[in-house]
Amino acid sequence: MDWKTLQALLSGVNKYSTAFSRIWLSMVFVFRVLVYVVAAEKVWSDDHKDFDCNTRQPGCTNVCFDHFFPVSHIRLWALQLIFVTCPSLLVIMHVAYREDRERKNREKNGENCPKLYSNTGKKHGGLWWTYLFSLIFKLIIEILFLYLLHKMWDSFDLPRLVKCSNVDPCPNTVDCYIARPTEKRVFTYFMVGASSICIVLTVCEIFYLIFKRAVQRARKWRKSTKRSVSYSKASTCHCHIKSEEKENKSQPRCVA
Q1: What CA–CA distance (Å, rounded) separates 62 from 55?
Q2: 88 has pLDDT over 60
């Protein structure tokens, strides 16, 4: 898998991201992708080869391995990293759509025509919603994969000995031994911890976006309220002056 291509694509998101998203992207590529490529992938390369059972029954070792490892940790993490980074591409696609609209508008109405967007990468209108939904998708994917990891392997633990019973064609109960369980347990806890930190960063960014939007809305509401109050005062004064002028005209003038 070419992780460099994915990194190059996601690096463009930094131009439209908040500080939380930049930290999240650094966490993903330094503490997850880099650890996955450099170390974790090699640790799980021998998971099936060195899965040893105390029987020579043909097919029993393969069946027991499939029973305890329906999906390999390393493949599950690869899917997680792919799915968790894909929502960020929605932001790039939306910005590209805005830029294309701006280009077509200039071609149609000339270079000096009014712009459709003050800044195509600014998180306003539809782009703000796209950015928020991408964060929610990332959050759901992270939690879903952590749940799957916890469900398949109880509490992210890898015991040294697993007992395979009532699984054909294994006779009775068969003891099987996982290769390098301590090392695999350490990497599992590390990847789960990195994923948990990414979840916290995503939640913080969601609250930050909503809080910032609420503050902007409150400021606009206050400005509009002040304008309406000042306008009403001005109109009241104007009407009062007109009424005084009418009264002065209606009063009889004394002739000397």
Answers
A1: 12
A2: yes
